[in-house]
Amino acid sequence: MAGTRLSEATSIRAAERGDLEAVAAIYNQGIADRVATFETQPRQAADLAEWLAGPGPFVVAERDGQVVGFGRVGAYSDRCVYEGVGEHAVYVDRSARGAGVGTQLLNALSAAAEAAGYYKLSSRAFADNEPSLRIHERAGFERVGVQRRHGKLDGIWKDCVLLERLLGEAADGR
Ligand SMILES: CC(C)(COP(=O)(O)OP(=O)(O)OC[C@H]1O[C@@H](n2cnc3c(N)ncnc32)[C@H](O)[C@@H]1OP(=O)(O)O)[C@@H](O)C(=O)NCCC(=O)NCCS
Predict the structure, then answer these.
(1) Residue 68 CB less than 6 A away from ligand 1
(2) Whether residue 102 has its Cβ less than 6 Å from ligand 1
């Protein structure tokens, strides 16, 4: 995709192999913060190469030559009927949070997913992840419901809010 200017200093563009070290570092912050994912083991850049090879959009936010966030769409299901549904994630470096990057990434990711033919993006946020719920609301995602005790993180049950946004044809005439 072409780069999208956000501000004087920040742009969003398709991820490249050379971004994976920075993307892994940002993802590992999210894992360490225990706010975003049930994963607890840090990832290496090489582990994320499959994200580049996958069909879904994978974008990064870049500021002053540094990758400060990323968003990606992966498969929601291996059932054919759901091939137009993507499961997405957005992560922003701790140093860059609260400045609108997450919202812009989510909007850019939705546009890229729609252009790629997806009719829905869906994901879950921990019910206590207020920044994530906020950016999803602002980017036009609906709260479908709460999945109670959807998994354990460090031995503690977590409730998840199921979020979705219709795209393209599915969003028309609602
Ligand atoms: C969620 C995340 C991507 C948001 O990125 P960001 O760049 O900070 O997002 P934005 O600056 O666009 O918006 C953040 C919003 O959350 C709000 N917010 C931040 N901390 C908050 C808190 N503790 N309680 C309530 N709202 C909060 C901000 O005020 C802002 O809303 P506003 O603009 O209406 O004031 C980022 O916090 C992050 O990477 N977190 C770790 C990974 C993660 O949770 N990813 C989502 C997985 S579902």
Answers:
(1) no
(2) yes
161, burial (CB in 10 Å: exposed 0-12, middle 13-18, buried 19+): buried
pLDDT average per 10 residues of sequence, the chain (174 residues): 58 97 98 96 96 94 96 95 96 97 97 97 98 98 98 97 97 79
**What residue ranges define each of the domains in the chain, with the CATH number in brackets?**
4-172 (3.40.630.30)
Q: Is the CB of 166 under 6 A from ligand 1?
A: no
* Cα–ligand 1 centroid distance for 99 (angstroms): 9
Q: Is the CB of 135 under 6 A from ligand 1?
A: yes
* Residue 141 CB–ligand 1 contact under 6 Å: no
pTM: 0.94
What distances in angstroms separate CA 44 from CA 24, 33, 159, one per listed residue? 6, 17, 28
CA distances from 154 to 34, 39, 106 (A): 9, 10, 28
CA 168 to chain centre: 19
- The H or E element spanning position 111 is helix 101-115
